């Protein structure tokens, strides 16, 4: 099963975002995650679709929009139009999650559903036929640089069981506090896609080595 390293651009230098996404592509990452925050669903405000669209032509990497927003239906088409092939909505925010996920797919996107730490895996049990990815938050959303929540290991294991039972290749992604010290726990629990921000941007001169190190540690934890 493929290990994917997906950087969050939350810690990026937004005064030179184009250079930052090019740096990530050169570092050998698999996808870029855009942490979209609206100041309502989470106590922080980040970028809109026009920012994503502005850097879309600079790299060929796939983009995923992680919508930490109170009403994910509102701008849904804009994220896809901006070049995000994957749109991830929070189970806690979508008033009609089944319909929203179906809408993403009908518009040609890949659909992901995210779970905050307190939300049980059962929240996605009846939409697994509509998703390509389940994102297990390993921090409370809103900020980068937070501590990984080890208590999420049991939840990752349960999501892995639910996904495997479908027989479909649904990605299990984790997001929050992923570093060389924590990726092993998430990988051993069943995650195969790892979103990391601070751990990758800590040393821009060695970002490629850090990507390779995370990939290696994730694989070693599965042996
Ligand atoms: C939380 C964000 C962060 C970010 C990664 O809302 O989603 O988890 O992507 O941040 P780090 O890797 O710095 O914890």
TrEMBL record:
Keyword Chaperone in annotation: no
Residues annotated for substrate binding in this entry: 8, 66, 142-145, 175-177, 197-198
The protein's name in its UniProt record: Ribulose-phosphate 3-epimerase
CDD domains for the chain: RPE
Keyword tags: Carbohydrate metabolism, Cobalt, Isomerase, Manganese, Metal-binding, Zinc
InterPro entries for this protein: Aldolase_TIM, Ribul_P_3_epim, Ribul_P_3_epim-like, RibuloseP-bd_barrel
Cofactor list: a divalent metal cation; Co(2+); Zn(2+); Mn(2+)
Species of provenance: Amycolatopsis rubida
GO CC annotations, alphabetized: cytoplasm
Active-site feature positions: 35 (proton acceptor), 175 (proton donor)
Gene3D superfamilies (alphabetical): Aldolase class I
Reactions catalysed: D-ribulose 5-phosphate = D-xylulose 5-phosphate
Pathway this chain belongs to: Carbohydrate degradation
Residues engaged in binding a divalent metal cation: 35, 66, 175
Enzyme Commission no: 5.1.3.1
Family statement drawn from the similarity comment of this UniProt entry: Belongs to the ribulose-phosphate 3-epimerase family.
Cofactor comment text: Binds 1 divalent metal cation per subunit.
NCBIfam families named in the record: PRK05581.1-4, rpe
Gene Ontology MF terms: D-ribulose-phosphate 3-epimerase activity; metal ion binding
GO biological process: pentose catabolic process; pentose-phosphate shunt
Function of the protein: Catalyzes the reversible epimerization of D-ribulose 5-phosphate to D-xylulose 5-phosphate.
């Amino acid at each position: 099963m493929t290990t994917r390293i997906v950087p969050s651009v939350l810690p990026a230098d937004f005064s030179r975002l184009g250079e930052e996404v090019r740096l990530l592509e050169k570092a050998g990452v698999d996808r870029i995650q855009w942490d979209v925050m609206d100041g309502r669903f989470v106590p922080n405000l980040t970028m809109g679709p026009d920012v994503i669209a502005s850097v879309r032509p600079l790299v060929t990497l796939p983009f995923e929009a992680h919508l930490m927003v109170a009403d994910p239906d509102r701008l849904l088409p804009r994220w896809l139009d901006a070049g995000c092939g994957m749109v991830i909505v929070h189970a806690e925010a979508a008033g009609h999650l089944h319909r929203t996920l179906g809408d993403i797919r009908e518009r040609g996107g890949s659909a992901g559903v995210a779970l905050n730490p307190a939300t049980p895996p059962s929240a996605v049990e009846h939409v697994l036929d509509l998703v390509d990815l389940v994102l297990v938050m390993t921090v409370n959303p809103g900020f980068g640089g937070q501590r990984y929540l080890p208590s999420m290991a049991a939840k990752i294991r349960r999501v892995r069981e639910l996904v495997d039972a479908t027989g479909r290749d649904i990605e299990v992604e984790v997001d929050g506090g992923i570093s060389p010290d924590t990726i092993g726990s998430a990988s051993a629990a069943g995650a195969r896609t790892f979103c990391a921000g601070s751990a990758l941007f800590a040393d821009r001169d060695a970002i490629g080595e850090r990507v390779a190190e995370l990939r290696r540690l994730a694989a070693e934890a599965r042996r």
